[in-house]
Amino acid sequence: MTTDTVQPATESYVFQGTINKKPPHVLDGQGVRMKIEKNGKIYDDVLDGVTGAAVGALGWGDEDLPAWLEKAAKNHTYTFPSLIGNPASEDLAKFYIDNSPKGAFAAALWCCSGSESNENAMKIIRQYQVERGCPEKYKIISRDLSYHGFTLGALSISNCARASAFKDILIDQEKTCLTMEPCYPYRFQKKGESEEQYVKRLLDNLEKIILDNDPKTVSCVIVETLPGSSLGTCPSPKGYLPGIRALCNKYDVVFMLDEVMCGTGRCNPNGKLNCWENFLEPEDAPDIQSVGKTLGSGFVTIAGVLVGPKIRDAYIKGSNAVFGSHTYASHGFNCSVALDVQKKIQAQGLTANIFKMGNLMGSKLQDALLDKDNIVGDVRGIGGFWSLEFVKDRTTKEVFPAKLDVGHRFQDVCFENGLNVMGMQGNADGISGDIALLAPSFIVTEDDVNEIVKRVVKSVEDITEQLKAEGNW
């Protein structure tokens, strides 16, 4: 994979990652392949198996992008969204609403990141409760081992090491931001417990939390439809999400889904946009939903909040206003480019393609890895979003010691084998547990899938042998 070397400039001026060291830099790319410089070496055929953080849809070097950018630049002059709007933001909102089940959503707000979209959703929900005369409903229930973003508000409804690092300055974790059990069948469904029994146990736990905290004070339940960097793409068992919807209806609680990573076409079974369509009927749609990632295919910084009709109606019957705004909310340039991205994806049937090719990739990985002697305990996912979970013992599902950092080591091994994946830690208890995420571009072909699988399998074999040689497996 290495074709040349350059003299590296190792000192970084960007305050992220390892502060004083530059990460690998992308120099060029085409389709699902990238050219990357790392420590002075040039890697010219790296398969982009995760598109950053499940962001890419159209891949590298899209031929239509320059024209979209030029059009957006010519037609856009900045406007502050609470004073003057722009057609592109309206058109993008209508596109998303029209390509969701009828009646699911009635409005949208566009922002610049998934963290920002979840932050805005929390504020929208809070004002909704006030608008309809229920200010006492302020408590938020989210899941253990969840991740909803890196702002303090989004971290307050997250439950992982990234949130724990800021626990002293988060929203009250005992009285306001409450925690229910994760939905994680591979690790937490008990031996001998049926899927139906497991779902009932989870729903009974949620109902108990609502009742113990007084339903009149509970505002919303927030769930990642298909968790990404938290648990590693665990599909919900049958009846779980409909059960949460029913409890929210029963106790007058807002039902919110976080689809920042898994939504906008990455995991939709109907060639549309929403991941929840794998699990819920249209009439059980969420009341509010955050989206992001593939919305602009990484070409522009955009994410959003989709608002259901009952929330919109409560605002209209109340103050009919949102007080405050982000400077770059519903930014015309970003919305214009994102809309062109989505129109191309729709015209070329790429959401259907990634669902088919992603499921093919997942099934091939399951066949290639789960009956072989290696560290992979589980391969799971839906459509274009899959994970490997690494374990020391398949029978007991024992995790590797956190100090071994197997997830990130696997990421490094994959890179040397010409594949970009996302390695993570903490899925088992917030600290321990190792996974790797795969989320290729929507344009991926069967040949690309076969090559991704080949490189993943080689990397699993390599790290398994490394750990064995160290006496760690």
Describe the structure.
The chain is an alpha/beta fold and 473 residues long. The protein has 2 domains: 2-61 and 349-470, Alpha-Beta Complex (Aspartate Aminotransferase, domain 1), CATH 3.90.1150.10; 67-347, Type I PLP-dependent aspartate aminotransferase-like (Major domain) (Aspartate Aminotransferase, domain 2, 3-Layer(aba) Sandwich). Helix content is 36%, strand content 18%. The strands form 3 sheets. It has a 7-stranded mixed beta sheet with strand order 5-11-10-9-8-6-7, sandwiched between helices. Strands 1, 2, 3, 4 and 14 form a 5-stranded mixed beta sheet that branches. A hairpin with a 2-residue loop joins strand 2 and strand 3 (33-38). It is globular, with a radius of gyration of 22 Å.
Which characteristics define this entry?
alpha/beta, Aspartate Aminotransferase, domain 1, Aspartate Aminotransferase, domain 2, five-stranded mixed β-sheet, 36% helix, globular
Mean pLDDT: 96
> How many discrete structural domains?
2
- Total beta strand runs: 16
What is the global morphology? globular
Give the N-terminus to C-terminus distance in angstroms. Answer: 29 Å
Tell me the structural class: alpha/beta
User: What is the chain-wise order of helices and strands?
Assistant: EEEEHHHEHEHHEHHEHEEEHHHEEHEEEH
Helix content percent band: 25-40%
Integer-rounded radius of gyration: 22 Å
Strand neighbour order, sheet with most strands: 5-11-10-9-8-6-7
Q: Helical element count?
A: 14
What is the CATH top level name of the largest domain? Alpha Beta
Report the β-strand fraction as a percent range: 15-25%
Main pleated sheet: 7 strands, mixed
**CATH fold group of the largest domain:** Aspartate Aminotransferase, domain 2
Can you identify the CATH superfamily of the largest domain?
A: Type I PLP-dependent aspartate aminotransferase-like (Major domain)
Assigned CATH architecture of the largest domain: 3-Layer(aba) Sandwich
